[in-house]
Every structure is written in C-alpha cells, then in structure tokens.
Amino acid sequence: MPEPDPASHIEARGLGVRFPGGVQALSGLDLVVRRGELLVVIGPSGCGKSTFLRVAAGLAPASEGTLTVAGEAPERVRARRAVAFVFQDPTLLPWRSLHANVRLPLELARVPSAEQNLAADAALALVGLSEFAAAGPAALSGGMKMRASLARALVTRPELLLLDEPFGALDELTRERLNDELLRLWERDRFTAVAVTHSVAEAVLLGDRVVVLSARPGRIVADIPVPLPRPRRAALVGAPEFAAVAAEVRARLRAAAPPDPSDLSVRT
Ligand SMILES: Nc1ncnc2c1ncn2[C@@H]1O[C@H](COP(=O)(O)OP(=O)(O)OP(=O)(O)O)[C@@H](O)[C@H]1O
C-alpha cells in the first residue's frame, strides 16, 4: 500500500454510501482535503452532503470505496477525539451552564478537572462568551448558542472540524458575525475544516476550495479554488473579485441541480 501523503488529511476514494432501505446517497466520490484546509461542500438538497460529513466523522460507514482521516479509519479518529462536529442545532444540554456544556467533551475524555476548567474558560473567551459562563442555554440568543456550540467543538483542540450548515438557522446579520468568528478561529489555529452550506456567498467567503456535488447520488461535478486573499471577513462579499467566483459556483450548482419541472424553458 502507498505511504499516506502527510499533506492530505481526508482521503475519499471511490466512496459510496447506500442506506439499508436502498437509497444511494453518494457514489464514486474521490476527494482529498489537505491538512489545514478549509473546504466547503455545496450541492442540491439531498445529494449526500451530510452523509459525507457523517462518514468523515466516523458516524456512518462507507458501503463502497474508502475514506480515511490522517490515514486512519474515521471511527478511530473519533475515538481519540481528534474530530469535532458542529450541527445547525447547537444541542446544548438545557440543565447545564454554558461552562459545563463547553467542558463536557473533556469530562467524557476524563481530562483532569482543573484542566477542563481552564480549557473551557479559554474556549468561552475565544468566542466572546466569558461573562455568560454561568448562564443556562435558555438565557442565550440563537447566535450565542451557536457560539457556545463552536466553543464546545474547539475545546478539545480537534485536528478536524466538520460543520453541517452550522449557521443556517440564524438571521443574516448574526450569520455574518458567526462566519467572521469562524474565520478568525480557523486563521488562529488552522485546523482542517469541512463545511457544508446551501449559501453560495458563504461557500466563497469561507472556502479555500468549493466542491460542488451532483444531485443524488452525490459525486463531484466541480472543484473550484477560491483565490481570494486571507484574512477574509464578511464585508468581502461586495467585492467584484468575490462576485466572479460566486458566479462560477452558482453556475456549476445550477447545472448540478435536478431540472425544475415548473421551468418551461427546459421542456422540449
Ligand atoms: N439514515 C438514513 N437512512 C436512509 N436514507 C437516508 C439516511 N440518511 C440520509 N438518507 C437519505 O440520503 C440522501 C442524502 O441525505 P443527506 O442528508 O446526506 O443529504 P444533504 O445533501 O445533506 O441534504 P440537505 O441539503 O437537504 O441537508 C437523502 O435522500 C436522505 O433522505
């Protein structure tokens, strides 16, 4: 077997996922995510984006081909807590304070409690929530809950962060702020990150590359580099060079989407 390339973090080769009911979510997917890269995956609804993240997180098995993380099976990477997942729903435990929510992954890893407290303090400070450490999730806005969810994901200093439409449920302004926050955290620590989104603007703002998947079963139809300089912030969205990349992503996404039956222009 060839030596794994140290620069590649996730390697999917001929990856396919078929669910027990027969739904083929992904098929023949070849993708390399480099270490320290921020990759965005976009594609039509139901094409298998979340399924790809779940396989990379070690939460779902591949049915064809392989996917490795740092040359290892994703389940092993999950077991050593080197991967963290952020979902659209912040899933904070309502009976725990923010601090106790953020330190939970360290508790589960049986990290000594003094270390847990220091790391949770630092993670809350990173996302600007120190003064809410003792508050319960019910006292927080949606944006604050998502910040807490990011803090909980980063508290273990993961090598790989997987984000499944993390800010999709937030209003536009809060979403912009959270994207800036995510960019700041990633610029600081340069963990490998794979984010799924439905927003073309978000994809171009965040990504080093944007991978466009076809309609189900998802396979890669475009792999678009984003040559915009970093650090990037949400204000970049109005720039002409931004619009050019966004137009390319949008065109590839349109071409990937299944035809709209109400669109008369595509009927013969
Ligand atoms: N556990 C499961 N069992 C059976 N089918 C599933 C399961 N999970 C997902 N699917 C199906 O697999 C397909 C891909 O789902 P997935 O959630 O990965 O798509 P997605 O691209 O993330 O969708 P969306 O953009 O709507 O969130 C969908 O048709 C979905 O209904």
The ligands bound in this entry are: adenosine-5'-triphosphate
Strand segment tally: 9
**Strand arrangement, largest sheet?**
5-6-7-3-8-9
Low-confidence stretches: none
- CA radius of gyration: 19 Å
Mean pLDDT: 92
How far apart are the first and last residues' alpha carbons, in Å? 51 Å
SSE order in H/E notation?
EEEHEHEHHHEHEHEEH
Helix content: 25-40%
Kindly name the structural category: alpha/beta
Strand content: 15-25%
General description of the model:
Pfam families: ABC_tran (PF00005). This is ABC transporter ATP-binding protein. InterPro entries: AAA+_ATPase (IPR003593), ABC_transporter-like_ATP-bd (IPR003439), ABC_transporter-like_CS (IPR017871), ABC_transporter_ATP-bind (IPR050166), P-loop_NTPase (IPR027417). There is one protein chain. The chain has 268 residues and is of the alpha/beta class. The chain is 35% helix and 22% strand. The chain has eight helices and nine strands. It has helices at 49-56, 74-79, 98-108, 113-126, 142-154, 172-189, 200-206, 240-256; strands at 8-18, 24-34, 38-42, 64-69, 83-86, 160-164, 192-196, 209-213, 220-225. A six-stranded mixed beta sheet has the order 5-6-7-3-8-9, with helices on both faces. Strands 2-1-4 form a three-stranded antiparallel beta sheet, covered by helices on one side. Helix 3 (98-108) runs parallel beside helix 5 (142-154), helix 4 (113-126) crosses helix 5 and helix 5 packs parallel to helix 6 (172-189). The longest helix is centred in the last third of the chain and has 18 residues, at 172-189. The radius of gyration is 19 Å and the shape is globular. The mean pLDDT is 92.
